[in-house]
Design goal:
With 370 residues, the chain is an alpha+beta fold. The chain has nine helices and nine strands. The protein is globular and about 125 Å long.
Length: 370
């Protein structure tokens, strides 16, 4: 009887233990299900949050792009109104380029943080290489402040060469790049400066898969295809040269051109033929820069002045170089680069558009959106 009773108790214990084990397993499984559901819910919530943030960013980016486009339209209208108001600017300066400022109007009022109805705004700016690195200025930048590689002729190869040597490029490398740039765009197969240039035969011999274009450059980036224009040389040239206009004689606006551009032009004729040397170049440059900067001695301020011989105390040798520069001088520019930076509301999302326009017919000859 005791044996039977013991066996009965054991069976009951086992049954109870099995029930508890099953309940525990169900409880643990339920907990895991809850944990997994929580993880999924958190994941979905995070994804929704990310999607919402991304959607807001895309919307703000679109607003910024429209603000940048509004800036281009605004600048075009200012150029058009300036030309048709009966009192257009006779000359361009670094401070007032392409558009006159109204009486009492500052350059910040004209070009900085121009508001739009939706809370966005735009600013018209440009960047320029200075002795202290790249600097950002307000306003328009004329293309005539740069060396037009479509207008350079074989007899002007020295200008391109000095544009490079003045920036630390070796004379041999500079000569090859300069002559080859001219050969790329001229209509013939005659090599410029003997072995320095490059026509179709050279590119075929290099297995490059292309030939000399023998037509005007369509973009500054096209320089990368030219013999001798290494990535390092391209970086030194890209902000100092232009391809506009594609036809016409070589001209620069000495009122707005950077010192290295002016120096490259006048340095190209230094020597026995003009009885000048580097000292005259440096002294002429100092006088030009001092005049252009105005009384405060600071570039891009309201008292910037255009170049005028009567305001420059030049000696005979400096005059020789100055007259050479003046034969290329175009005091009133035709092509203007508009860079509009649009900002969307308070989110500070930005978009940038750069356009080059022809002031004569208001056509857009270049457009790039970041």
């Amino acid at each position: 009887m005791k044996m039977i009773s013991l066996n009965s108790n054991i069976k009951k214990s086992l049954l109870l233990s099995g029930r508890f084990n099953r309940s525990g397993i169900i409880l643990v499984a339920s907990l895991w299900v809850v944990i997994i559901l929580v993880i999924i819910a958190v994941g979905l919530s995070h994804k929704t949050s990310v999607d919402l943030a991304f959607g807001k960013f895309v919307f703000a980016k679109s607003q910024a792009a429209y603000a940048a486009r509004a800036g281009i339209s605004y600048a075009l209208r200012e150029i058009r109104d300036n030309k048709s108001d009966g009192n257009p600017a006779d000359v361009d300066t670094h401070y007032a380029c392409g558009v006159n400022l109204k009486d009492g109007q500052s350059i910040e009022q004209k070009w900085k943080d121009i508001p739009l109805e939706n809370g966005s705004h735009f600013t018209i700016v440009y960047k320029e290489q200075t002795d202290h690195g790249i600097k950002k200025y307000l306003g328009l930048a004329d293309e005539e402040r740069k060396i037009n590689i479509n207008a350079i002729m074989p007899q002007d190869v020295g200008i391109l060469k000095f544009l490079l040597t003045l920036q630390g490029v070796g004379e041999e490398d500079a000569h090859i790049a300069a002559a080859s740039i001219i050969d790329w765009k001229d209509p013939d197969e005659e090599i410029t400066d003997g072995s320095y240039g490059a026509e179709t035969e050279f590119y075929k011999s290099q297995g490059s898969g292309y030939v000399a274009k023998n037509a005007p450059f369509d973009s500054v980036g096209e320089l990368r295809l030219v013999r001798g224009v290494t990535p390092e040389i391209f970086d030194k040239l890209k902000d100092l040269v232009t391809v506009f206009p594609k036809e016409g004689r070589f001209q620069i606006n000495a009122n707005t051109a950077s010192p290295v551009v002016i120096k490259a032009v006048v340095s190209s004729v230094v020597g026995p033929a003009t009885n000048t040397d580097e000292a005259e170049v440096l002294s002429l440059m100092d006088k030009i820069i001092e005049l252009r900067n105005g009384e405060d001695g600071v570039l891009h301020t309201a008292d910037d002045r255009p170049i005028d011989e009567k305001d420059l105390p030049l000696n005979a040798k400096e005059k020789t170089l100055f007259y050479y520069l003046m034969q290329y001088h175009a005091p009133k520019s035709r092509f203007f680069r508009i860079t509009s930076e649009g900002v969307a509301g308070t989110r500070q999302v930005k978009s940038r558009i750069t356009a080059v326009v022809n002031q004569e017919d208001f056509s857009t000859v270049y457009w790039f959106q970041d």
